[in-house]
Design a protein that fits this description.
mainly beta; outer membrane lipoprotein receptor (LolB), chain A; 22 strands
């Protein structure tokens, strides 16, 4: 008996069997230096333009739909800054050049072959490529992010009522990041050894204040094999014990905030966890800026004089920074398993491969949360970050548009390997943290 062939499989088969067009140096240049021949433009939009409720219709097509709605509601006034190039770490670019064209997708989402280091796919995405969204997801996963290792110390989270502006809680934390594999700059290169579990990356978080949450710790261990589920551990100071987090807890509210663990860094999950669909390329306003040129707050008194991004708008839920018109890839990510969301619409910066605007939709398909991560140029930040080529996460705003609540973040990011030992990313380290 002849077996029937599913027409639904044709796009995937076409993607796998299509002749390979090797990535070129010209592809690499376009990928890392998209503004080499000039910045994008939008009619009537200039540096210094203030987009508010009165004129937002004029600039609707220069905004993602979530930010358009925020401004239309009168919650925020967006200030336009100059589009600037955020050139990536030269070691990362060189690793990309050295391994150009070696990376291929495997048969299933979450499978990848031949990746060594750098940006896996530098070719411009195409709507005719059924796996273009997946390739962009890999570019994010293996993106420069915080580089080989970095820390955010301290890191302030504030919980606010969007309508009244009432400050409900402030957390002081530290976040730390370590790439165990595919390292390009800081010793050891190319990987941290020993690494018996074959981990790719670790994230370690610790609560410093307030007292009732002090010493709460989170450890996430991400495997090199994307098909393997992350290991995640939570240490509760008052219980003095480590417990392993169940997979579903990555989409629970974390520490009573508006964030899920899955929200961290724009998307903190596996490539295999989502169906990725590339929806097109747009020039839209993104929260990229020069930290030292912003209106900074005097609220926190760091010994070195560092000042944090200020917040403004409705409920003080939005970062008081300038936004640049930038080239952005729009990707829809739909969970393949059980989830409280129906999809994420990710706005991925084409130059940096970072996710700086995300729209999270609930199971009914209605907009639930509007997620912003502000990026500062490293040369306009702390002296130790200058010249690193790491676009620094510098402020965040997670707004629950349904409950009218927000969680905001103010960062002191430091690209400093000395503060991030590999031992920090082991379960034993959590037990010794009291």
């Amino acid at each position: 008996m002849r077996k029937s062939f599913s027409l639904a499989a044709l796009p995937l088969l076409a993607g796998l069997l299509a002749p390979a067009h090797g990535a070129t140096e010209a592809d690499l240049e376009r990928s890392f230096f998209p503004y080499k021949n000039g910045a994008p433009a939008f009619p009537g939009l200039a540096v210094g333009t203030l987009i508010n409720k009165a004129n937002v219709e004029q600039f609707k097509d220069a905004l993602d739909v979530g930010m358009y709605q925020v401004i239309k509601n009168g919650w925020y006034e967006l200030k336009v800054g100059k589009t600037t190039s955020f050139d990536s770490d030269k070691f990362y670019v060189e690793a990309t050049r050295k391994n150009l064209g070696k990376t291929k997708l495997g048969p299933k989402t979450g499978d990848i072959d031949g990746f060594v280091a750098g940006r896996p796919f530098v070719e411009e995405p195409s709507l005719s490529d059924p796996r273009a969204g997946e390739k962009l997801a890999w570019n994010f996963k293996y993106g420069i992010n915080w580089g080989d290792n970095a820390t955010i110390t301290p890191f302030y989270w504030k919980y606010r009522d969007l309508q009244s502006g009432k400050l409900e809680k402030t957390l002081k934390l530290s976040f730390n990041f370590l790439n165990l594999k595919h390292r390009v700059q800081h010793a050891p290169v190319p990987e941290v050894t020993p690494n018996p579990s074959n981990l790719f990356r670790g994230i370690y978080m610790k609560v410093l204040e307030p007292q009732d949450l002090k010493n709460t710790q989170l450890l996430i261990q991400r495997y090199e094999d994307d098909q393997k589920l992350d290991d995640a551990y939570l240490y509760l100071g008052f219980q003095r014990r480590v417990r392993r987090l169940a997979t579903g807890q990555a989409t629970d509210a974390f520490l009573g905030s508006d964030l899920m663990i899955e929200d961290f860094e724009g998307y903190n999950g596996r490539v295999a966890d989502m169906k990725w669909t590339y929806k097109g390329t747009r020039n839209i306003l993104m929260p990229f800026y020069q930290h030292n040129e912003m209106k900074l707050t005097d609220e926190f008194k760091d010994a070195d004089g560092y000042k944090y991004v200020n917040f403004s708008g409705q409920g003080e839920c939005f970062p008081d920074v300038t936004w640049q018109l930038r080239k952005v890839y729009v990707v829809e990510a739909a969970p393949v398993g059980a989830s409280p969301i129906s999809k994420r619409v990710l706005h991925i910066d084409a130059q940096v491969s970072s996710i700086n605007r995300t729209l999270v939709y609930d199971r009914k398909g209605e907009l639930w949360k509007s997620w912003t991560i502000g990026k500062s140029h490293p040369d306009a930040h702390l002296p130790l970050n200058k010249g690193t080529g790491i676009a620094l996460d510098d402020a965040f705003s997670m707004v629950d548009v349904q409950t009218k609540h927000c969680t905001t973040g103010q960062f002191k990011g430091q690209v400093d390997p000395k503060q991030v030992p590999a031992t920090m990313f082991q379960v034993q380290y959590m037990r010794g943290g009291d």
